[in-house]
Write a structure and sequence with these properties.
By secondary structure, the chain is of the alpha+beta class. The chain folds into 2 domains: about 45 residues; about 80 residues. It is about 35% helix and about 25% strand. The protein is built from 3 helices and 7 strands. The strands form 2 sheets. A 4-stranded antiparallel β-sheet has the order 2-3-6-5, with no helix packed on it. Helix 1 runs antiparallel to helix 2. The longest helix is centred in the N-terminal third of the chain and has 26 residues. It is rod-shaped and about 70 Å long. The protein starts with 10 loop residues before the first helix and ends with a strand.
Length: about 150
């Protein structure tokens, strides 16, 4: 059996279909059962490899969205923007930002945009108004492709 990418659309379904095929073909045939065991072991190795790559591909850091530094040149609906320095980030990366509970009210009052943008060396945020206090957060970065 060829290599099946479990984390692609249909990959897991294809693997399960192959397992069912092998089980039906086996019909008491011990060599087919052995082949099923080998395929399951190969599948487990593939899953481990995929998960290892995802785990090694992300990191977390704390940040603050300060009151100072917001500029009025954001898009319609979110006229204010702020770039927060974030070493090692590129425009190909993906940032997931989680606000500290103590900053939720401040973020709500300035209508902080729920999405952000990664750029080389920084993360960009938008809001409808400048926050009245600093907003504490942490971000998770998943590295993008080269």
């Amino acid at each position: 059996m060829g290599k099946i990418r479990a984390f692609t659309p249909g990959g897991l379904q294809t693997m399960l279909s192959k397992i069912v095929q092998i089980n039906v073909m086996a019909g008491g045939n011990s060599s087919a059962i052995t082949k099923l065991g080998e395929d399951l072991a190969a599948f487990a190795e593939l899953v481990t490899e995929e998960l290892r790559g995802k785990r090694d591909n992300a990191w977390c850091a704390s940040c603050v969205l300060p009151v100072a530094g917001w500029v009025r040149d954001g898009p319609s609906g979110y006229p204010y923007r702020l770039d927060v320095l974030a070493e090692g980030i590129t425009g190909r990366d993906r940032a997931e930002v989680v606000l500290e509970p103590s900053s939720q009210d401040t973020a709500r009052k300035c209508a902080l945009c729920p999405s952000c943008e990664t750029l080389d060396g920084r993360i960009r945020f938008w809001a409808t108004s400048i926050p009245v206090a600093d907003i504490a957060a942490e971000y998770w970065i998943e590295k993008g492709g080269e």
